[in-house]
Every structure is written in C-alpha cells, then in structure tokens.
Design brief:
Blueprint (H helix, E strand, L loop, with lengths): L9 H15 L4 H25 L2 H8 L2 H21 L1 H7 L2 H11 L6 H10 L3 H27 L9 H30 L2 H25 L8 H28 L4 H10 L5 H11 L5 H38 L2
Helix pairs in contact: 1-10, 1-14, 2-9, 2-10, 3-8, 4-8, 4-11, 4-12, 5-11, 6-14, 7-8, 7-10, 7-12, 7-14, 8-9, 8-12, 10-14, 11-12, 11-14, 13-14
Keywords: Membrane, Transmembrane, Transmembrane helix
InterPro entries: Na+/solute_symporter_sf, Put_Na-Bile_cotransptr
Protein name: Solute carrier family 10 (Sodium/bile acid cotransporter), member 7
Length: 330
Amino acid sequence: MTRPTYLPDNFTFAILLTVILASVLPCSGQFAEVAHGVASVAIGLLFFLHGAKLPREAIVAGATHWRLHVLVLCSTFLLFPLLGWMIKPLALKLVTPELYTGLLFLCVLPSTVQSSIALVAVARGNVPAAICSASASNLIGIFLTPLLVGLLVVHGASAGASLESVVPIIMQLLLPFTLGQLLRPRIGAWVDKRKATLRLVDQGSILLVVYTAFSAAVIEGLWDRLPMTALAGLVVVNLLLLGLALSISTLVSRRMGFNREDEITLVFCASKKSLASGLPMAKVLFASQSVGMIVLPLMLFHQIQLMVCAVLAQRYARRADVLLPETAHR
C-alpha cells in the first residue's frame, strides 16, 4: 500500500517524534553529555564517509565554484540583515523589543555547518560545494558577526575572534573529511556499494542534532519564558524570515542558471543560522544583558529551519528519484 501524497514521509515523522521526545524527555546532565558525544561522532563519521565517497575531481570543482560561495556568503551576511531590518515594523507588533534584538542577532550569524551539509546530502545536492560554503561561512562569521552586531544590533559591542571557535570546525568536519579522502583509494569502492548506510548516517545525524538542540532549548525554558501570544508571534516572524530566505535563494539560483545540485546547495546553505556558533557569541557580545531572551529567537529558528528544510530535502530527493530513470533512457 502506497503512502498518500498528503502525508509526510518517514523522515519527517521521525523529526516530529524527535521534537516531541525532546519536549517530554529532554536530555540533561550526564545523558546530555553522552548524547552530544554520540552526535559529534555521527557527524564526524558523516564527513569521513563523504570524504571517502567523493572523487577528487568533484571536490576541486566544488571548492572552485566561486559564484555559489559568494551567493551563500551574501545571503548569510547581507540578505538576512536586510530582511531583519525590513520586517522591523511587523516584528515589533508581534514580539517585544528585546526579542527583536534577538532576531537581529540571528540575522548576522553564520550558516550552520553540520545540518546544512547533511541536508544537502539527503537532497542529493552538491556536497563538496556545501562543505566549502558552510565551513567558509562559519570561519568568516567568527570575525564578521561581532562587527555586524556592533554596527546593526548593539552599537559599540565588541568581541574578539577566538581560535577556540575554529578548532572544533577543523577537528569535527575538515579532519574526518580529509582522512576519508586520503583513504578513498582503499575504501572508496566499499563505501560506494553501501549508499543506504551513508543515507542512514545523514538522517541519523540530523535527528541527533534536533534532539540535543531542542533538549537544550526546553531545559532553558523555551515553553515557559513567554506568553503563548508572544511565542506565536515569534514563530510567525521566524517563518517569514526563513520563507523569504528560501524563496529568494531559489529564485536567484534559477536566474543564475545553476543546475539542480547547485540550487540545492545554495538553498540550504544560504538559509540556515548556526545555533552552535550563536550561543557562545551571544554570551560574549551581550555579557551585560539578559542573554536568554536574545537567543530565544535563534533557538526557535534553529528548530524551525531543521524541520522545514528536512521536508524540503525529501522533496528534492524524490524529484531526483523521478529524474534518474528518465536520464538513464537518454
């Protein structure tokens, strides 16, 4: 029996169940440390497998796709702040001024790394380009985000860029990927024959990120900090931001003549905001203020972007399944 088209797919159901589980049974204490450790291992394995799977020629092509990388960076650090400024009249009617400050802070953050690349892989996009774009966004964001916060969010704010923020990116992402590349001559054929395993790691890493991130948000009091009206208004504004980013990046990609794989990479890398980078930066940049309310828009946006983009990734993947047989007969 086939699944009705109006019902979500299994992976989307898994995302929703993970959110419910994190709301009812959020991980905390030692269990949270174990969950974060498992998520880190899964993400490292994900990048190792992608490194072993991808031909060297594809990686060189991804790294040199400068038009795509420029568009991702422009969307992350120019388009998002512009959108945050444009929706100010509407946002201030739906949320408090402190929450709007949090929304502006969200807009100047770098893109996510792990979830962006995992979603690009699920959607069958240009993974090498996604690795380059997402990693570059985070590295540049370490320096650019504090500057933008000082200019647009809190005048006069300052924060030093720390190498401690760079090391985790190198150790968790670039190092496993490079190791996989080095071992590709020995294990590449074995990995190519186990695409189902790679897909399981892709989706499993996303579920772990959702569970650990949403658990942290729940423990921080996500459902207790605000009245339901303000929370609903925050959801509306976050959905508006994400919808505009997704729509504009899709339109620009097609106007630029990108193929489907590059479109997927631009859409997912250009529409994300990093919770992992945002929380530490907020503690430094807003040390004299109440950080809780400022990062609440980011925590909520992070969950929304994962769930919405997980559905979108599955739709892209299904289109690829339809196109493959047609291509094979050409």
